[in-house]
């Protein structure tokens, strides 16, 4: 069977692509990933077998940006907490002291201003937020002006000023544990951390400590390491955290668009044409 | 007044002969009998504009949380029974979807401004049509008949004030006009929606989901069916509940009270 396979369309990091699999599929030409993150793949290994790789950057950006905004608003307005109060069997609640944070006029710091980060900036601008961003490279002036974003060459500057920090980077050796004890301590004690990138970008132990001791106000994580977390993990016990099960691109429409984009890449590879969104080992 | 307390009735007014002004928190004044208060010579004020942005934000929060199944997702993520996240667990796309705003006042318009950034198609129904420039600025299309809005929207957001005309504005008929894949979001007043019809519509999958910052009564009785539904998010009327906004509300109420006591024109007087 392996000899017949020419293309693999991955869904949720399966199948696992390792040496054995690649050796069993000598006619494999292309692997298309149903997402944009490629950190679960050994790109060099795959390339060494002459197999091309593609991701689906266009299909995922809006949906992921929406996830970021959903977490931003939910954590600012304490949505999960107040919903639980609303439906709890006990009638004993006082509305007056469940206050959230006003989003309008607050400062959003976006770490990672790629396609997704930029779409978040577009949305946040409509909420009248002040936008700072940190990125490997600076965006063009017109792009910055369109969303009113200010570049922070040093991440420290962003961390010190932001009321909400949104992490939107891809996972690389450079971004592994990008947010650790030092970064959390630079943040305001009233700040909220939101992670929609990869669990490993945040030092989870440091985050637990920071949330427990009030170093930062709250966090909202769509991604953790691992997923799901072990059931006895301290993050699950905290009051000031929202954890979602990697919602990132999980909508019917996105699933459809992702598959379309993946198939485009697969067909291109099978026809010997350039791939629309090829990913090369760096 | 905070959260409609104390209840202002004839007995209370008779027992407070020196009462000059009632400062009500928030913008809604449906809980006050204005004619009665006027007959006792008592002036009334509210805090109309400061609440608008936070309330619009609450509408967007409820829409996003409901569409992406955020509350359900969080419960799954933290539940002791969860072993893995199912691959086919999906929500509904917000970007590019159609939002129907019922009531395009200050709050409704702010919702439109936010929704535009999500590339949503915006329809609106209002007593009167907005100016062309206002419509173009947010890309909103007027639906003179509420039916047209209900039939085309993926999300229906209620931002009207409560009046005799908007009481039970959304009932069985309106819910049946909505798409079965649609979600209703209420940031106006509980009484704008017929709750029994809503329960039935949700149970029979006539609509997909509901997200309510307001109910009738508030809070709902603890055995109310809405509290048990997975596809319903309920928040305890926190549209304006941010520290900064509440601070300004208090300031405005204090200003109105001071003016009322000094016999000066009252800021934000409700006539």
Automatic annotation (TrEMBL), chain A:
Residues 69-248 form the D-isomer specific 2-hydroxyacid dehydrogenase NAD-binding domain. Pfam families: 2-Hacid_dh, 2-Hacid_dh_C. The keyword Oxidoreductase applies. PROSITE patterns: D_2_HYDROXYACID_DH_1, D_2_HYDROXYACID_DH_3. Keywords: Oxidoreductase. Residues 10-279 form the D-isomer specific 2-hydroxyacid dehydrogenase catalytic domain. GO terms for cellular component: cytosol. One of its GO terms (molecular function) is NAD binding. Belongs to the D-isomer specific 2-hydroxyacid dehydrogenase family. This is Glyoxylate reductase/hydroxypyruvate reductase. It comes from Grantiella picta.
Automatic annotation (TrEMBL), chain B:
Residues 60-239 form the D-isomer specific 2-hydroxyacid dehydrogenase NAD-binding domain. The keyword ATP-binding does not apply. Keywords: Oxidoreductase. Residues 2-270 form the D-isomer specific 2-hydroxyacid dehydrogenase catalytic domain. SUPFAM superfamilies: Formate/glycerate dehydrogenase catalytic domain-like (SSF52283), NAD(P)-binding Rossmann-fold domains (SSF51735). One of its GO terms (cellular component) is cytosol. InterPro entries: D-isomer_2-hydroxyacid_DH, D-isomer_2_OHA_DH_cat_dom, D-isomer_DH_NAD-bd, NAD(P)-bd_dom_sf. One of its GO terms (molecular function) is glyoxylate reductase (NADPH) activity. Belongs to the D-isomer specific 2-hydroxyacid dehydrogenase family. This is Glyoxylate reductase/hydroxypyruvate reductase.
């Amino acid at each position: 069977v392996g000899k017949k396979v020419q293309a693999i369309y991955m869904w949720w990091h399966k199948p696992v692509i390792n040496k054995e699999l690649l050796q069993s599929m000598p006619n494999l030409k292309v692997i298309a990933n149903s997402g944009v993150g490629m950190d679960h793949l050994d790109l060099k290994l795959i390339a060494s077998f002459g197999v091309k790789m593609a991701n689906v950057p266009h299909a995922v950006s809006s949906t992921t940006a929406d996830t970021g905004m959903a977490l931003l608003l939910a954590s600012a307005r304490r949505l999960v907490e107040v919903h639980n109060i609303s439906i709890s069997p006990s009638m004993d609640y006082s509305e007056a002291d469940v206050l959230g944070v006003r989003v309008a006029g607050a400062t959003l710091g976006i770490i990672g201003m790629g396609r997704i980060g930029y779409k978040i900036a577009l949305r946040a601008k409509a909420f009248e937020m002040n936008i700072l961003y940190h990125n490997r490279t600076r965006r063009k002036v017109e792009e910055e002006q369109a969303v009113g974003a200010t570049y922070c060459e040093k991440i420290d500057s962003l961390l010190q000023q932001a009321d909400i920090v949104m992490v939107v980077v891809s996972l690389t050796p450079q971004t592994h544990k990008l947010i650790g004890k030092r970064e959390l301590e630079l943040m305001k004690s009233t700040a909220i951390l939101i992670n929609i990138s990869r669990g490993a970008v945040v030092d989870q132990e440091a985050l637990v400590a920071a949330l427990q001791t009030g170093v930062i106000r709250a966090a909202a994580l769509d991604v953790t390491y691992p997923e799901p977390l072990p059931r006895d993990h301290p993050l699950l016990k905290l009051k000031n955290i929202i954890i979602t099960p990697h919602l990132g691109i999980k909508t019917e429409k996105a699933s459809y668009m992702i598959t379309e984009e993946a198939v485009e890449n697969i067909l291109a590879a099978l026809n010997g044409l350039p791939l629309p969104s090829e990913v090369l080992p760096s | 007044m905070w959260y409609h307390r104390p209840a202002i009735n004839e007995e209370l007014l008779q027992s407070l002969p020196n009462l000059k002004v009632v400062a009500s928190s928030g913008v809604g004044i449906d809980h006050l009998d204005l004619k009665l208060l006027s007959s006792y010579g008592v002036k009334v004020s509210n805090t109309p504009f400061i609440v608008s942005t936070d309330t619009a934000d609450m509408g967007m929060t409820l829409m996003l949380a409901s569409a992406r199944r955020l509350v359900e997702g969080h419960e799954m993520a933290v539940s002791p029974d969860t072993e893995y996240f199912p691959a086919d667990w999906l929500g509904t796309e917000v970007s590019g979807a159609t939002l129907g705003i019922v009531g395009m006042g200050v709050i409704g318009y702010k919702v439109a401004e936010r929704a535009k950034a999500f590339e949503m198609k915006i329809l609106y129904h209002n007593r009167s049509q907005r100016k062309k420039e206002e419509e173009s600025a947010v890309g909103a299309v007027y639906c003179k008949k509420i039916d047209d809005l209900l039939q085309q929207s993926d999300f229906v957001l209620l931002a009207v004030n409560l009046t005799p005309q908007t009481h039970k504005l959304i009932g069985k008929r309106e819910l049946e006009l909505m798409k079965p894949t649609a979600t209703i979001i209420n940031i106006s007043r509980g009484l704008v929606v017929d709750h029994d019809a809503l329960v039935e519509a949700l149970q029979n999958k006539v609509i997909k989901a509901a997200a309510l910052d307001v109910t009738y009564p508030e809070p709902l009785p603890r055995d109310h069916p809405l509290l048990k539904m997975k596809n319903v998010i309920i928040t305890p009327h926190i549209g304006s509940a941010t520290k900064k906004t509440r601070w300004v509300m208090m300031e405005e109420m204090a200003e109105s009270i001071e003016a009322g006591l000094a016999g000066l024109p009252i800021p934000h007087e409700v006539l």
